[in-house]
Amino acid sequence: MNETTGRTMNDGVGNHDGTASASVLFNQAGRNGTRAYAFNGTDSIVRVPHAADLNPGTGDFSFGAAVNFTELPPPSNWDVIRKGVDGNAGGYYKLEVFLGVSGGARARCFFRDGDGTQISVVRGTGLSDGQWHLLTCSRTGGNVSIKVDSGTSSNPVTGLGSIANTAELTVGAQLPGGDFFKGRIDDAQVST
After folding, report:
1. Residue 60 structural domain
2. pTM of the model
3. Is 43 exposed, middle or buried (0-12, 13-18, 19+ CB in 10 A)?
């Protein structure tokens, strides 16, 4: 996410370039001196075409991004990165920030398989502090986990099957539109 101009998010590892909507601002101050993208909370989104290797199936995988924001999410949530939505055949996975019951911004990883079995894991409080927070979701062996900066929370996986859909991967919102993130995102990644 170090591009300074244009509409293309170049994948620095694989071959999964994305297209940013016109409202995504490139060349913003990023994590660790790099560049990031700014999302406006209204209609900003990056869309990455479906590719089979973005589907973890039943294997281990991780996904995440660094976020920096100062406003609290609305009562629903803001999507950071996701592949698929409710109703997609094959399930979906997502990382979101949401307003916790204590009134602070928290992070949640959500996994749903093709049979409808779902599990989530939550971590963090007060994430809307204008600092960079590295959020990573993982499914490894018999656990799903979320790492927020240096702290990790995990849940055992019971019956979570294959996650494999034909949906686009999105950064900053969901398709067809909604849960728009407001703030900066850097270092978005998926590793299957």
Report:
1. 48-191
2. 0.95
3. middle
Measured CA to CA, the distance from residue 145 to residue 122 in angstroms comes to 8
Q: Does residue 79 lie in a domain region?
A: yes
Residue 151 CB: number of other CB atoms within 10 A? 9
Inside any domain, residue 104: yes
- Between the alpha carbon of residue 180 and those of residues 37, 40, 54, 189, the distances in Å are 13, 8, 22, 18
Q: Domain holding 166: CATH number?
A: 2.60.120.200
Domain count, the chain: 1
Cβ-Cβ contacts under 8 Å for 12 (sequence gap 6 or more): 2
Report phi then psi at 157, rounded to 5. Answer: -95, 125
Would residue 148 count as lying in a domain?
yes
Does a structural domain hold residue 21? no
Dihedral class, residue 23 (left if φ above 0, else alpha if ψ from -120 to 50, else beta): alpha
Distance, CA of 154 to CA of 139 (rounded, Å): 9
Mean pLDDT of 140-159: 89
Q: Provide the sign of the torsion angle of the four alpha carbons 178, 146, 88, 185, taken in this order.
A: positive
- Tell me the pLDDT tens digit for each residue of 77-91: 999 999 999 989 999
